[in-house]
Amino acid sequence: xxxxxxxxxxHLGGITAGYALSNDRYDPSKPTCVLINSMCTxxxxxxxxxxxxxxxxxxxxxxxxxxGHGSTSCPSEHFTYWDSALMALQVMDxxxxxxxxxxxxxxxxxIVTRMALLAPNRVGASPCIREIxxxxxxxxxxxxxxxxxxxxxxWDPVPALRPFYEKWTSAVATPDxxxxxxxxxxxxxxxxxxxxxxxLSAFWTKTLKEVYKGDEGRKKVRMAVICLLSRDGLLxxxxxxxxxxxxxxxxxxxxxxxxxxxxxxxxxSSSVEAKLVMIEGGAHYLNATNPKEVNAALLExxxxxxxxxxxxxxxxxxxxxxxxLFWSYNGxxxxxxxxxxxxxxxxCPQNEWQCIFPKEYGLESFCxxxxxxxKDSDHEDSLQPWVTATTASVTVLAFVMICLRLLARWExxxxxxxxxxxxxxxxxxxxxxxxxxxAMVKEGMGLHAGTAVPISNQVMIAKFLVxxxxxxxxxxxxxxxxxLLMYYRIFxxxxxxxxxxxxxxxxxxxxxxxxxxxxxxxxxxxxxWYPNLPGRCINQVGxxxxxxxxxxxxxxxxxxxPMPQVWKLQLRLSEKLALTxxxxxxxxxxxxxxxxxxxxxSYTSADxxxxxxxxxxxxxxxxxxxxVSACLPTLRxxxxxxxxxxxxxxxxxxxxxxxxxxMSQTGQSNQSQNGLTAQGHKGSGVGHSSHSRRHSFxxxxxxxxxxxxxxxxxxxxDASLRPEYDHGRMVTNVLGSKGRNVDSASDxxxxxxxxxxxxxxxxxx
Length: 765
What we know:
It is found in: Membrane. The protein is of the alpha/beta class. The chain has helices at residues 47-50, 53-58, 81-95, 107-118, 147-151, 157-167, 181-192, 198-211, 214-229, 259-264, 286-289, 291-321, 363-371, 377-380, 384-411, 418-443, 455-490, 494-519, 540-560, 563-568, 573-584, 587-599, 608-631, 636-646, 714-721, and strands spanning 5-9, 15-21, 32-36, 60-64, 99-105, 131-138, 245-250, 274-279, 327-329, 339-341, 522-523, 536-537, 697-699, 728-733, 755-762. It is built from 25 helices and 15 strands. The chain has an 8-stranded mixed sheet. Strands 13-15-14 form a 3-stranded antiparallel sheet, with no helix packed on it. The longest helix has 36 residues, at 455-490. The radius of gyration is 39 Å and the shape is elongated.
């Protein structure tokens, strides 16, 4: 059937143009593709495209019936394909569409090519750029039917069509005219080939007889035949077309064959991309005989070129940041998809790029730069050196901290426990994420998207980002679990372990949720780098913000967890502050997470490759800061070994010198030669003095399997911690440990290890 909607445009004294619009409305947030049908067909030729949800979700489909077809009519009896092209552009104007892709089948391919020639930049009522963004000719030829084209397999329409032209030429009105079955059968046979079923042939026979009846119908079909017989070739004009051209041709195309398209695609010499794809088994009306292949190709072209347009918008935004323009770009998502001016210019000149730049900024040189791929200014403010240097330096720092932690364990002759293995595992994940960061830098992250980063590189950056995001959150989890395991090993209190379990469980559940969120931020996933694919996406920046907020909250919970226990110890205020400082070193990772949180809001999809760089750089800082914070409380033995080897102990503060200053119950210092008595189990860290009721100092014991020494027996623990008295009063004191003469199962916390003195007052009855 013919189009049920019409619109009035001014060309040729006032044309009534028939059209169809997907979803019956124009959605300005999506790109648009204009569809021009073939000889003696209507908008119904594109039924398969209009019924494809993937296409209609991704773009507006605007099918327009050319002059001589369907519901389109005009006062003038005579017209050409150029008139149909102008009419289609005016239909776009009427509907408020300034930019569109264009697909044409057979003669529709000739018309959309003329549209691209007429509208590389068009001037309308408002100053703007209006253009055909990309072409997709289907089953066509760009030449007229010449002897040369016939020698290469194209048809000769004259013998077939001339008799109809003569039959339909009449000096008098023909109110009873009705197109015959022969014509209807020929149109269907040539166009659909082997796909012409009885049902399909019956549909088009009925449609053509509804359109071409009466005197008006006769004039329309006669002029349509004249246009085909006398059309002009476009070969000498194809080099002027600059937009991308994706040509599809069926291998079973009867009118134009396979040879001519291969030659003619090369004539689009100024096009940014011109390619030909042969569809195996495809007939002349390719969109109807092979809708799956055509729809997929159209979707790919629109998605790819829409990304390109956004890159162009990003370039212009870059110049605007430098106060080089006085306009803003609304892009494909604006009501008119145009450039709006806010300066003094009141009209848009026709010399291409110059209509968007003030003359005082040397736009000729900029246009030349655009033709050669962009200006060097995109590299002058590159963030790539910063990302590379920052990522490399913090990663090396984290790796050094891991090495020092392992050295500290070796120095104390301690086995590696779960917290050590977990932080080593976290470092491994860190290195993998860093590898993806450098891969993104290689693809162009840190450069402006407008000219320096090709579309294919932008897509690769987006793909790398998805994987890196997932690895990043797992890296944070391994680091958090390492710290919780270290707490578990040091603090042997049921309520403390309970809180460690709660926070650890929350962290594990959090990473599971955030992983699924990152994987399915867009459905399908490809929509993340091809934004116009059909599907749904949640807000990407919002997802990052939610992840950053939960990361900061869990970091704070982990850092605050040991503080109450530290302040319950019987220590001098300075020592409590020192221990608090030691456990608070991890607040730097909170700062890194918080700053990264603030950087997230600088990201914009219009210049994604450039604005993504600060976020990625601070991601590397955050990961490494977490590892450094997890290692700092364990490094004292390694640092002591280093200063001992270097022979600089005396020049360093007490933090790195090995001495023991026991503190009595009253708070006064008691200096002993060794800090531990000789009695008690060797390596247990527990001894007794035969000259005092006061028991010796000892470290809080670790789990036995985290040390290199032998576990204490129940009898030794009993002898060390519980005198054989019925009643007693116990006082606990804490002081620093001495160098290597300490229990091998203890971690060295900066400034002081935690040692406990238990005093018993004997009560005799």
